[in-house]
Amino acid sequence: MLFTVDFYKKYNPEASERRLVHIGRIATAVVVILGIAWIPIMRGMGQVLYAYLQDVQSLLAPGIAAVFFLGVFWQGATAMGGLAGLTVGFVLGMIRLFSRIFETSFDPNGVYYHWMIATNWLHYCIFLFLLCLLTIVVVSQFTPKPRPEQLQNLTYGSGTPEQRAETRASWNHWDVIHTCIIVGFIAAFYAYFW
Length: 194
Fold this sequence. Notes:
Layout: H1 2-11, H2 17-45, H3 49-73, H4 79-101, H5 111-117, H6 121-141, H7 148-151, H8 161-169, H9 173-193
């Protein structure tokens, strides 16, 4: 459904419902086949599904998080900077993923093995996030900046005083108290299981 409506129909607006259903079935079959083909790769990375999912997510999330963070909090971020950050994050994430799958092919005493394979996934995730941030900032310095009206109400601090007042009126002290309690529980769990 996602592929059919968001991608196929966008480029083929005249497609009939019958055609859309047919394309949706083909897309579903392709995803199922790719999922089945991916199983041996998953098995090669470890026996625990949760650990595998966390490892793969740590390779995809840093680029997305960096783009989101700078896109919201820095008005100087550009579309090309965001695309470059996503690209760097994805490419380096996939390089690590496939390096880990074929890790027996690399010298365990080598620099590449040490940095790309043996590094803890959380440390690699932090490194990748910082590199994506740096990429976005550097590329944004050399690409055309968006006009202020394009950023209106999209970035932090770009809203009008009326919009900020409306946002402030939408929450009260109980929301702050509940948020602090939830954040406290999360911090306690992290501290306990660290």
